[in-house]
Specification:
By secondary structure, the chain is mostly helical. The chain is built from 13 helices and no strands. It has helices at residues 3-16, 23-49, 58-87, 101-122, 132-152, 158-162, 165-188, 193-200, 206-217, 219-243, 248-253, 264-271, 276-302. α1 (3-16) packs parallel to α5 (132-152). One of its GO terms (molecular function) is L-lysine efflux transmembrane transporter activity.
């Protein structure tokens, strides 16, 4: 279950060990990171096209997904907004031009279009021979290796990456506010509170939450949990560029566990290299806590 964390952290650590003194090479790496954002999102769209078993009980699934997504989103953004009140805006990186609001929104639209393009391409591919999960995994590892090189050459110390109080504060805020949203969603849907808490503990890790909750509560709840966390990731991709400067905690935290993998390149692209350690810490803590919390709450439900 935790092998995915090693896949994320190992290339990042290896990249951090690589010094790069050539400015032209640094520029090449920066461009490569930007281009790989689109590649990973395209592969993500293809993986969406390969999802099956979602045609049954669609009404119940979408209602559950919609209610919990709305409750958790409102609670997450409210908690993270309060955290941002204490920190203030994110200062721009030196040498990085200020991007207008409309340009950021256009950037979000481009990212979504890439996902839709992947979704369309996936309709013509056979999941038996097109191993999208393997390709995505290798692409992600290469991207994280390059981001590690960026970190090494940004002047940040290893201590700043491993011990980041802001990242821990974001993770704790997301965790607690998600529970509040889960309790509210369970109350609205007349469900056991422990099921709502388990539903809210996926933190965007849709592959894991769908499997764990589906195994304990059935395919309808599992599909709803999958869609809820998947929609969270997609919403995060759309809102990160627009929120990063004024509300950086909201931008980093809303993606939940995905801030250390799939939304990490979008965060890095919108907030700069300095934002990466914060996102890594936040995503790592939420990834570590997610399966433990889900299984704990589900054990009370089944017991």
């Amino acid at each position: 279950m935790y092998s995915g964390m090693l896949i994320v952290l190992l290339p990042l650590a290896l990249g951090y060990c690589i010094p790069c003194r050539s400015q032209s090479l640094v520029h090449f790496i920066n461009v490569a990171v930007e281009r790989m954002v689109y590649l990973i999102l395209f592969l993500m769209g293809i993986s969406l096209a390969f999802v099956d078993n979602l045609s049954t009980h669609l009404g119940t699934i979408f209602i559950l997904c919609g209610v919990f997504l709305a409750c958790i989103t409102l609670c997450n953004l409210a908690g993270l907004w309060l955290l941002d009140l204490r920190r203030g805006r994110l200062s721009g990186e030196r040498g990085v031009p200020v991007i207008s609001k409309w340009a950021l929104l256009l950037d979000s639209a481009k990212l979504c279009l890439v996902i839709l393009a992947g979704l369309g391409a996936g309709q013509f591919l056979d999941p038996e021979w097109f191993q999208v999960d393997t390709l995505s995994e290798w692409a992600l590892m290469l991207l994280l290796l390059l981001i590690g090189v960026q970190l090494r050459n940004s002047g940040m110390k290893l201590r700043q990456i491993l011990l980041n109080r802001w990242g821990l504060a974001i993770a704790l805020t997301v965790m607690v506010s998600s529970w509040v949203g889960g309790l509210l969603g369970a109350w609205l849907m007349n469900m056991p509170l422990t099921q709502g808490l388990a539903f809210a503990s996926g933190n965007g890790w849709y592959s894991l939450s769908g499997i764990l909750i589906g195994d304990k509560l059935g395919p309808v709840m599992g599909s709803a949990a999958f869609l809820n966390d998947l929609a969270r990731e997609l919403i995060a991709i759309m809102i990160i560029p627009a929120l990063m400067r004024r509300h950086p905690s909201c931008a980093i935290g809303y993606g939940g566990a995905t801030s250390m993998d799939f939304t990490l390149p979008v965060l890095q692209r919108s907030g700069g290299v300095a934002i990466v350690p914060v996102a890594i810490v936040s995503g790592f803590v939420l990834s570590l806590a997610g399966p433990v919390l889900m299984l704990g709450f589900l054990s009370f439900t089944s017991g």
